[in-house]
């Protein structure tokens, strides 16, 4: 058994330990003051040596069945400058012995203890070698050795046989993982000449269905010949082809966007430690993660995965753009994008992957500021996608959510970048400002119908042969219940003084139109007003959208009209209806959608929306269809009552335990609790209430008595049975029990709280605390002795009557009688004994002599 933990990160050795060949693991990026822990069983022998011209420390382990090497890259420099901290700690798990390495001397003592003379390979021979498993013959190092160390005392490191091969001839096994999501069917090769191309003779393999790859039969020289490069294949999380490439330094066990960026930084001259620190500090990652040997999916770390996905989105989309506008091969474009991003990162260590300004600077860099590109629009789109990835960290299934964002939005954007139909000219898109005649207005809008199958389209309009520049602007509030077409256009003239005819179609004459026009004949058609027309209301003035008109002509038969005058009002509010679907188009081309219908979608439903986005550059018009799928999700229920309080109970409401149920219990129906909470859920699903176990409290007049003798539980499946059914309970009802209930007196109150959550079958609401007060009552004392018998008396125990007391009497003390009866009372009160008058009997040898001459009375 062998396990390795680097800076609290467990290194997965499953693949490495599965082959019969000599296996090797390469670790990098070591830090002073931090410890690598290696746990092994006592049957595993061990040796250390310096390799790579004395720069690396190699630890070799052998259990007679297989040999395993750990190469600690650059560790020698750390050992030479260390301050005494344990950098490596080896723990023998079955004996709990420990050996620590804190400097070069203690590292070499392990080899001296092993007794193996290393004379081949590039290892530096231990200056303190000996041929015995003791330390008496190592004068060069004996003064540096911790003789109290259990490994030292017991000669823990025995001789390792069969290791005197030349390292360059040794067959090694090397495996790893290709990660964006996991990528299957990808070609992975060792790039011996470092040109990024799989050349003849270079070792290669293919990732399996889980993204795993492995090389076997390699020599050490072949393994270290160059970086690991991967291209092609399919991302199994998105189903999309992998069209770029990822790299990693040789020996890395994970190849990913993060390892690729790190490799590019090292190519630029940074050390691996410097590159890893730059990435961690820029993107807010914890510094103890080894980016070359870390699988965020396996480790369930969505924060690290989000950074990797954002880098992949930026580089892949940039490469697609570069390939389209510059004609670059896709792999070459990916290489340029990664290389440029590494340089940008060094210049701007505060680079934000979801900041449009940072992304725009990067895009301008790699495309040489290509004038045909709308950098603001493209950057905003990429930033928006990456922002959604960042927000997906908090999703219920963050990894699936990130994959879905890549699958739909990132892929759609990449397809637009690579489309041959897209114009290569800059799109002029502007928001219409009030009284701004230079800007443009919305084009025609076809309303999305109730089945979400319609589209939103813009239409260019000519004014005397001149093209009008226009954009979507502000909120387009589109009815989902009717189908209407409305076209509103603005005059496009730099001068406020003009007379020009604008010809367009106002609206189709269909039932319940959204916008209608009223012409005032008394004003000689010089005024036009827009109205919102509701099916059940009269026409009322809504928005005056044209001012200072000199001429209006309208043909109500065809719907065609002409206008002369000055346009001074923007028209973005003309389509205010029932807010069923709101598309907010910004001047940079970005948009947001919202609808009250979204929250009503269940996890099994989806809403399909498509609309056309059209823009003009003054010469060309481009129309792109945006297709969106809004997948329904579950909305957690909400408990609306902040401090739910149940109706007060009394002690007598609690039943005694007569069937094995905890003493003094009260069944609370689930319906009663549910009705108390005011539960709401926008999804049309069945709701219930679940007890938050272990959160109940019990106090008596302010004193906490919470403990094992009281509590609240729910009659869930496995607890509910026929016994509870016989008590009148239903499944999922709640039960309050307390052994202290019966001891409450009439001056005491027990306050009970318990936490509950509403549940809709998928998600829980936030917990709310329910309170209930139980008032105490006086309990009747109990005589526990069924047939109390006093000690026998004799005639002489009775005294003669000498002072008017009936003849022959015996005084019985109250204490004697009380003690005889075994009186008990659950209430903490004073007790006494009272004679039940007239109930005494007297017999002599079985003959009843009860009468007026005898009796028992109490001295009250």
From TrEMBL:
Family matches, as InterPro entries: VCBS_dom
Taxonomic superkingdom: Bacteria
NCBIfam families: VCBS_repeat
Protein name listed in UniProt: Uncharacterized protein
Organism: Arcobacter arenosus
């Amino acid at each position: 058994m062998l396990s390795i933990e680097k800076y609290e990160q467990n290194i997965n050795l499953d693949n490495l330990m599965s082959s019969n060949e000599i296996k090797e693991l390469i670790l990098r990026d070591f830090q002073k003051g931090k410890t690598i822990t290696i746990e092994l069983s006592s049957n595993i022998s061990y040796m250390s040596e310096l390799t790579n011209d004395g720069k690396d420390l190699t630890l070799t382990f052998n259990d007679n069945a297989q040999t395993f090497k750990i190469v600690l890259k650059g560790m020698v420099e750390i050992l030479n400058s260390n301050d005494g901290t344990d950098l490596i700690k080896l723990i023998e798990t079955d004996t709990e012995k420990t050996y620590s390495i804190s400097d070069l001397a203690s590292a070499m003592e392990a080899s001296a203890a092993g007794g193996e003379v290393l004379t081949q390979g590039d290892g530096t021979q231990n200056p303190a070698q000996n041929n015995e498993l003791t330390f008496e013959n190592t004068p060069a190092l004996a003064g540096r050795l911790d003789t109290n160390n259990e490994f030292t005392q017991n000669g823990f490191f025995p001789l390792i046989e069969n290791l005197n091969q030349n390292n360059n001839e040794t067959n090694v096994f090397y495996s790893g993982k290709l990660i964006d999501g996991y990528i299957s069917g990808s070609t992975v090769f060792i790039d011996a000449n470092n040109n990024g191309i799989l050349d003849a003779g270079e070792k290669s393999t293919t990732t399996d269905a889980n993204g795993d790859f492995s090389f076997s039969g390699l020599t050490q020289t072949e393994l270290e010949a160059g970086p690991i490069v991967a291209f092609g294949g399919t991302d199994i999380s998105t189903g999309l082809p992998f069209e770029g490439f990822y790299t990693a330094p040789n020996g890395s066990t994970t190849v990913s966007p993060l390892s690729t960026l790190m490799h590019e930084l090292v190519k630029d001259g940074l050390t691996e430690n410097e590159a890893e620190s730059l990435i961690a500090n820029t993107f807010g990652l914890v510094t103890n993660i080894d980016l070359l040997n870390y699988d965020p999916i396996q480790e369930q770390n969505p924060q690290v995965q989000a950074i990797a996905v954002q880098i992949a989105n930026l580089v892949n989309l940039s490469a697609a753009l570069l390939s389209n506008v510059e004609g670059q091969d896709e792999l070459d474009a990916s290489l340029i994008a990664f290389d440029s991003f590494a340089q940008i990162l060094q210049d701007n260590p505060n680079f934000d992957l979801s900041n449009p300004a940072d992304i725009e600077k990067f895009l301008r860099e790699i495309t040489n500021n290509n004038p045909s590109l709308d950098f603001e629009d493209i950057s905003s789109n990429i930033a928006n996608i990456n922002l959604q990835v960042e927000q997906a960290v908090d999703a219920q299934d963050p990894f699936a959510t990130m994959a879905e964002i890549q699958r739909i939005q990132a892929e759609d954007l990449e397809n637009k970048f690579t489309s041959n139909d897209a114009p290569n000219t800059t799109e002029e898109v502007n928001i219409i400002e009030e009284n701004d005649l230079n800007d443009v207005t919305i084009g025609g809008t076809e309303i999305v119908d109730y089945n979400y199958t319609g589209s939103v389209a813009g239409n260019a309009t000519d004014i005397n042969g001149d093209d009008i520049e226009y954009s979507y602007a502000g909120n387009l509030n589109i009815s989902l219940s009717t189908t209407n077409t409305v076209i509103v256009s603005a005059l496009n003239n730099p001068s406020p003084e003009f007379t020009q005819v604008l010809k367009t179609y106002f609206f189709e004459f269909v039932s319940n139109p959204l916008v209608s026009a009223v012409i005032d004949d008394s004003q000689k058609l010089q005024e036009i007003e827009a109205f919102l027309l509701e099916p059940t209301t009269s026409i009322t003035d809504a928005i005056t959208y044209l001012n200072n008109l000199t001429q209006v002509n309208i043909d109500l038969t065809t719907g065609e009209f002409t206008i002369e005058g000055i346009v001074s009002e923007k028209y973005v509010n003309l389509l205010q209806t029932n807010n069923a679907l709101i598309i907010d188009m910004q001047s940079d081309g970005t948009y947001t959608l919202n609808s009250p219908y979204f929250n009503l979608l269940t996890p099994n439903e989806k809403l399909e929306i498509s609309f056309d986005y059209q823009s003009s550059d003054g010469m060309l018009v481009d129309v792109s269809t945006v297709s969106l799928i809004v997948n329904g999700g579950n909305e957690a229920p909400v408990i609306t009552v902040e401090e739910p309080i149940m109706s007060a109970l009394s002690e007598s409401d609690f039943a005694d335990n007569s069937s094995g149920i905890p003493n003094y219990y009260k069944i609370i129906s689930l319906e009663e609790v549910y009705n108390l909470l005011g539960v709401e859920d926008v999804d049309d699903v069945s709701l219930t209430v679940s007890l938050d176990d272990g959160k109940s409290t019990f106090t008596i007049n302010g004193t906490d008595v919470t403990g094992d003798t009281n509590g609240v539980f729910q009659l869930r499946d496995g607890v509910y049975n026929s016994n509870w059914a016989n008590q009148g309970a239903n499944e999922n009802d709640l039960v309050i029990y307390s052994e202290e209930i019966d001891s409450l007196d009439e001056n005491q109150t027990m306050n009970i709280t318990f936490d509950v959550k509403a549940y809709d079958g998928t998600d829980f609401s936030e917990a709310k605390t329910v309170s209930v007060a139980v008032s105490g009552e006086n309990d009747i004392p109990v005589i526990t002795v069924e047939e109390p018998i006093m000690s026998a008396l004799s005639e002489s125990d009775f005294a003669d009557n000498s002072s008017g007391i009936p003849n022959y009497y015996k005084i019985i003390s109250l204490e004697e009688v009380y003690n005889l009866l075994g009186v008990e009372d659950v209430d903490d009160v004073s007790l006494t004994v009272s004679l039940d008058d007239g109930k005494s009997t007297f017999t002599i040898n079985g003959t009843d002599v009860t009468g007026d001459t005898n009796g028992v009375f109490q001295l009250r």
